[in-house]
Amino acid sequence: MSLSTEQLAEIEEQRGQTAPTRRAVSEGLEERLFTAHPVLDHGFVRVIDYMGDDAAICQAARVSYGKGTKSVQNDEGLIRYLMRHWHSTPFEMCEIKLHVKLPVFVARQWIRHRTANVNEYSARYSILDREFYIPAPEHVAAQSEINNQGRGDALQGEEAARVLDMLKSDSMRCYDNYEAMISQDGQQGLARELARMNLPANVYTQWYWKVDLHNLFHFLRLRADAHAQYEIRVYAETMCNIVADWVPFAYKAFEDYRLGAASLSAQMVNCVQRMLRGEEVSQENSGLSAREWREFETIVRGN
């Protein structure tokens, strides 16, 4: 992770400031405020601000029940009920603002989640740093033979070394040309907004990303999944640790009912019921396609 001396000084200054408040405070997240948590080779995630905690979720839920109703129910039990029954608005009462440094190709995946407020570093006004994501050798992998959008086994030996060398040399050459185009040494220099088109997709960008807890959980359910691309999954896993400290009851319910859960179709439920009755169920008599059957077996048999 690369942080400039100025950024480190700013973080220390921010973490050194305290102020009295009457708003809800999450002690776990207070400890993380402003700290940069490293991700990949030059990236990070850090918490800039937040609103709400587990109690805020319960407060929002109980206001819709009417005075006195459900007021004695414990917070953890209520949160688990809300998560289990797919309630959303109580979780929207909590928000978090993150400062994220990430490769451009990861940002393009991330921005598909259109339920957040985003402000990105502008290469029209500023010059991007000479920082590129270069994967570790174990993550330089071949195309998967069974998944068109995934990777297979890691490349080995000379082939892996050749790919890594191309990634490094192409990144540096593109940045050299970027600098040469915008240079005003003996020339006018190309506008930054045009010169940036020459930079590769593994160059790092930064943004502020503000999202409510409901939509953050949706992001994490998809991107912290084992099938998600590694480069975005490690960001999601870092964010999972942050959220677990912020709203521990809500995150535990999310782990149990989303991350660690499985969704079954009506046909799959029927298969489970038949199995429990002692019937022999196979793909041929299940009503499921071959692919659905493979997914079903993975869920119920773990194979």
Q: Strand order, biggest sheet?
A: 1-2-3-7-4
Distance between the termini: 38 Å
| Count of spatially separate domains | 3
Classify the beta-strand content into a percent band.
Answer: 5-15%
Mean pLDDT rating? 91
- Total strands: the figure is 7
CATH architecture identity of the largest domain: 2-Layer Sandwich
Kindly provide the radius of gyration, computed on alpha-carbon positions and rounded to a whole number of angstroms: 24 Å
Number of helices: 13
Secondary structural class: alpha+beta
- What share of residues is helical? 40-55%
CATH class of the largest domain: Alpha Beta
Element-level helix/strand string: HHEEHHEHEEEHHEHHHHHH
Biggest sheet layout = 5 strands, antiparallel
CATH topology grouping of the largest domain: Gyrase A, domain 2
The parts where pLDDT drops under 50 for at least 5 residues are: none
The coarse overall form would be: flat
Structure characterization notes:
FAD binds at residues 89, 112-114, 120, 212-214, 218. One of its GO terms (molecular function) is thymidylate synthase (FAD) activity. It catalyses: dUMP + (6R)-5,10-methylene-5,6,7,8-tetrahydrofolate + NADPH + H(+) = dTMP + (6S)-5,6,7,8-tetrahydrofolate + NADP(+). DUMP binds at residues 109-112, 120-124, 196, 223. With 303 residues, the protein is of the alpha+beta class. It folds into 3 domains: 5-133 and 202-259, Gyrase A, domain 2 (2-Layer Sandwich), CATH 3.30.1360; 137-199; 266-301. It has 13 helices and 7 strands. The protein has helices spanning 5-15, 27-30, 54-63, 75-84, 104-110, 157-182, 192-195, 213-223, 230-246, 248-259, 266-276, 283-286, 290-301; strands spanning 37-39, 43-51, 95-103, 117-120, 141-143, 151-154, 204-212. The strands form 2 sheets. It has a 5-stranded antiparallel beta sheet. Strands 5-6 form a two-stranded antiparallel sheet. Helix 4 runs parallel beside helix 10 and helix 9 packs across helix 10. The protein starts with a helix and ends with a helix.
